[in-house]
UniProtKB/TrEMBL annotation:
Keywords: Aminoacyl-tRNA synthetase, ATP-binding, Cytoplasm, Ligase, Nucleotide-binding, Protein biosynthesis, RNA-binding. This is Tyrosine--tRNA ligase. Belongs to the class-I aminoacyl-tRNA synthetase family. TyrS type 1 subfamily. ATP binds at residue 236. Its main location: cytoplasm. A motif ('HIGH' region) lies at residues 38-47. It catalyses: tRNA(Tyr) + L-tyrosine + ATP = L-tyrosyl-tRNA(Tyr) + AMP + diphosphate + H(+).
Amino acid sequence: MKNFIEEVTWRGMLHDVMPGTEEHLLEQMRVAYVGIDPTADSLHIGHLVGVMLLKHFQIAGHKPLALVGGATGMIGDPSGKSNERNLLDEATLRHNQESIKEQLGRFLDFTSDAPNAAELVNNYDWMKNFSFLEFIRDVGKHITVNYMMAKDSVKKRLSSESAEGMSFTEFTYQLVQGYDFLHLYRDKKCTLQMGGSDQWGNITTGTELVRRIEAGKAYALTCPLITKADGTKFGKSEGGNIWLDAVRTSPYKFYQYWLNTSDVDAEKYIKIFTFLSKEEIEELTEKHREAPHLRLLQKRLAEEITTMVHSAEELENAIKASNILFGNSTADDLKQLNEKTFLEVFDGVPQAEIARDEIEAGIDIVTVLNEKTGFMKSNGEARRALTANSISVNREKVKEDFALSNNDLINNQFVLLQSGKKNYFVVRVV
């Protein structure tokens, strides 16, 4: 067995671990799980630390379980939250679970015949037939209210600072999660639960149930909650979450998120979100510190994680899209962009609309630059710019005799005007 604890420790992925866990994992192949509440039909990058823990666990020779919380998703976890979450119906949860499994398959080996192949489990499958009376009799009686009240997640919500208080539904969450661990201990020989540091209280409730009901030994491990050096929230952009689903967050935007991380964060993230070796990361970090302006760490981080979440082809497209603003791209590169990526690349660039029939008839470039778009303040300014060879249409220089036509449309809808190196204007054909 590889030393899993050693691996996640140097990567900065270990926050707290129950004594004896390292020795337990070195004895033989073990089973561990991470819970994911299916509140959306995609994971976002906030989920990635847990997924990476499971992958490292599998690489070390152990068996990972991804628990999609169909039952717990119906309740809502109080940890780290000030309000109760909206509850989802079963059909929505089932749809979300299928989408999440497909995404997890990019990281974890679910399909091989290896004894440590990953499995996806859903706590709704064992909770749906559990009556309330059975649950409070068989599970509830083993954990005291005093024990449950001592948890930080409960104390914060019941404190005088919280105006909302806490519903009984949320209060029971730790019991339901604890029962998951007990069920997997019995059914899958699972002896370890992993999660974010805010989950410690819920996880240890599970180890306590295993001890009290089965007289068994179970273990807990948490990773730090990921933060950004500037104090803003990790995994968020101005548009909200950074999702793993390409429809919700395009590969271009996904790539840009990692490319724009600070030096301090990039040094931390490259250990957590890639599978590069310690030696590779140390060498890369040293080179980056010698020439930080080259942003070697950010580029390698963005490349590795975009390829892993999307594909090598999507990475290549994201790099091409990123290069468009720096002037070293061609008309062909532009025409390969889909509408969403095109608009994201030129987000904030001034736009104007021109009727399609005018484009079909052909419209001279001077009229486009001044009268139709206002990109140039007058026909004279437009002509001077054209004479100075500083006007480009879709990255290609044009002269005064140029006329805009259907052949110039990107995605049959856009034309990119450019004056000099950095002044852009988007024409949308309607």
